[in-house]
Design a protein that fits this description.
alpha/beta, globular, 272 residues
């Protein structure tokens, strides 16, 4: 499947418009939003293992058609995750040393190599049932990258793709990493976008197995003028809406969720 068609979109209400925004927004899609999806914001960092359990429950019920598309917006406590293609030599400290530093080490079923998550990094986990015209893993990755690039542009940061690599890159290094998995054309896992995390966590690993490649963040690129995760979340969400053609309905209270979705989310409400 060819990447979805794009066009100029000038709506930027709620997000700053940086010098690189207008050129990128020529790549935002012309098609109107096709469907709705629930957006679930977490305001307290969600432990990675809890995030996996939550995704698995959502995945099963989305495959069954018992819930609509759902997108999780969250942060994690410090954790190093090993994707299905990870190599042990890409983790530079022992599990005991990592534990002593308060960093969890865990396996993940996502694609890719090893990466780090932590506070200050916005993570999105889309649980989307890809339609007939979307059923292409490369097109899905392309659209996640487009979402990250557009979000960076809102803050005057020029981000771009690199041939043969996934994610979004800047002149200072990689700002967004992607690791996904699909089951019966329902997506899970997703993308991390570095806003203002402590990047020293990446020094414990060879991120994504890319030797000598730096990692960047909006804080590194913008200094004291950098936004917070709370600032970036609605900006990224709006680009996600446009690029993935899904109108997001933000879950403001647990009782507002449909019954099946509410029952899945209830064990995690302490993190909302």
């Amino acid at each position: 499947m060819e990447p979805v068609p794009f066009r100029l979109c000038i709506e930027t209400v709620g997000c700053p418009v940086g010098q690189h925004t207008a050129p990128f927004l020529s790549a935002i899609m012309t098609t109107s939003l096709d469907t709705t999806a629930w957006a679930i914001p977490f305001n307290v960092p969600l432990p990675y293992d809890d995030g996996v359990r939550l995704q698995n429950a959502l995945l099963t019920t989305r495959i069954a058609g018992d819930i609509p598309d759902t997108v999780l917006f969250l942060e994690h406590p410090p954790v190093i995750t090993k994707g299905v293609r990870s190599k042990d030599e890409h983790i530079l400290l022992s599990a005991d040393d990592l534990k002593h530093q308060g960093i969890q080490l865990t396996e993940s079923t996502r694609g890719g190599d090893v990466t780090w998550h932590g506070p200050g990094q916005l993570v999105i986990y889309p649980l989307l049932k890809l339609g007939e015209n979307e059923a292409d893993a490369h097109g899905y990755l392309w659209n996640l990258e487009a979402t990250a690039i557009a979000t960076a542009a809102d803050y005057g940061v020029e981000a771009y793709r690199r041939q043969g690599k996934t994610g979004a890159w800047t002149q200072a290094g990689k700002i967004a990493a992607i690791g996904i998995r699909l089951k019966r054309w329902v997506t899970h896992h997703g993308m991390s976008f570095n806003v203002d995390p402590d990047l020293s966590g990446f020094a414990k690993i060879i991120p994504c197995g890319l030797v000598g490649e730096p990692v960047a963040s909006l804080k590194i690129l913008l200094g004291d003028a950098h936004p917070t995760v709370a600032d970036v979340r609605p900006c990224l969400a709006r680009h996600f809406e446009t690029i993935f053609r899904r109108r997001l309905t933000w879950l403001e209270t647990l009782n507002a969720a449909p019954p099946t979705l509410r029952s899945i989310l209830e064990p995690y409400q302490a993190y909302f």
